[in-house]
C-alpha cells in the first residue's frame, strides 16, 4: 500500500473507533472519567506553573534588590574610603596654609609653596571637598568644635570669633569639624 492509502485507512479506523466509543454507553462513562482526570491534571499543572512563576518572580525581585543594595554599599564604601584618604591629606594642607600666612615677602620659594597649596586645594575641591565657613557664624556642634569660650566685644554670644583650624565637608558629610573660638 502507498503511504496515502495507508494513512487514509488508519484515519478511517480511528474515526470508526471514535464513533463506536461515543455510541457505547459504558465507554461514555469511562471517557467522561478520563476527561475529568485530565481536567484535574491540567488544573494541578496550572497551579504548579503559577507557583513556579511566583517563585521565579520573587527570586528576580530579590536579585534586583540585592544588586541595588550592593551598588549602594559600594558607593558608601567608596565615599568612606575617599573621606579617609582626604583626612590624611588635610594636615599637609594646614601646614601649607600656615606657611603661606608667615611667608616672607617676595621670596621665590614662598611663591612655590603658594602654588603647591593652590594645586592641592584645587585637587581636593575637584573631589568634592568644601571648606566649612565658620567665622562670624553661629556655633553649630555639627560643623564646629569649640576650643575656647571668650569674651568678645561686638560679637553676639554663641557666635564664632575666630577659626583656629579649618573644617571640611565631603558632600553632605563632615570630614573634619572646624576648630573655633566662640564668643561668651
General description of the model:
- With 184 residues, the chain is α+β, with helices and mostly antiparallel strands.
- It has 2 domains: 1-90; 130-184, Roll (Nucleotide Exchange Factor Grpe, Chain A, domain 2), CATH 2.30.22.
- It is 64% helix and 17% strand.
- The strands form 2 sheets. Strands 1-4-5 form a 3-stranded antiparallel β-sheet.
- Strand 4 (167-170) and strand 5 (173-176) form a beta hairpin.
- Helix 2 (25-101) packs antiparallel against helix 3 (108-126).
What's the layout of helices and strands?
Blueprint: H1 3-23, H2 25-101, H3 108-126, E1 129-132, E2 144-150, E3 160-165, E4 167-170, E5 173-176, E6 178-183
Parallel strand pairs: 2-6
Antiparallel strand pairs: 1-4, 3-6, 4-5
Helix pairs in contact: 2-3
Structural class: alpha+beta
Give the averaged pLDDT, no decimals: 86
Strand/helix succession? HHHEEEEEE
Radius of gyration: 41 Å
Determine the number of helices (DSSP H or I, runs of at least 4 residues): 3
Count the beta strands.
6
Low-confidence stretches: 17-24
Please describe the biggest sheet, giving its number of strands, its sense, and whether it closes into a barrel. Answer: 3 strands, antiparallel
Keywords:
184 residues, alpha+beta, Nucleotide Exchange Factor Grpe, Chain A, domain 2, 2 domains, three-stranded antiparallel beta sheet, 3 helices, 6 strands, 64% helix
Amino acid at each position: 500500500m502507498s503511504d496515502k492509502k495507508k494513512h487514509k485507512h488508519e484515519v478511517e479506523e480511528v474515526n470508526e473507533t471514535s464513533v463506536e466509543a461515543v455510541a457505547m454507553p459504558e465507554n461514555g462513562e469511562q471517557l467522561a472519567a478520563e476527561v475529568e482526570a485530565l481536567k484535574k491534571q491540567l488544573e494541578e499543572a496550572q497551579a504548579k506553573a503559577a507557583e513556579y512563576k511566583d517563585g521565579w518572580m520573587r527570586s528576580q525581585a530579590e536579585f534586583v534588590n540585592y544588586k541595588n543594595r550592593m551598588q549602594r554599599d559600594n558607593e558608601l564604601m567608596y565615599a568612606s574610603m575617599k573621606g579617609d584618604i582626604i583626612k590624611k591629606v588635610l594636615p599637609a594642607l594646614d601646614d601649607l596654609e600656615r606657611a603661606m600666612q608667615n611667608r616672607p615677602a617676595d621670596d621665590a620659594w614662598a611663591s612655590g609653596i603658594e602654588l603647591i597649596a593652590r594645586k592641592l586645594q584645587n585637587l581636593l575641591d575637584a573631589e568634592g571637598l568644601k571648606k566649612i565657613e565658620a567665622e562670624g557664624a553661629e556655633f553649630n556642634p555639627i560643623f564646629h568644635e569649640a576650643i575656647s569660650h571668650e569674651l568678645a566685644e561686638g560679637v553676639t554670644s554663641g557666635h564664632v570669633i575666630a577659626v583656629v583650624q579649618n573644617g571640611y565637608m565631603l558632600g553632605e558629610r563632615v570630614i573634619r569639624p572646624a576648630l573655633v573660638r566662640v564668643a561668651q
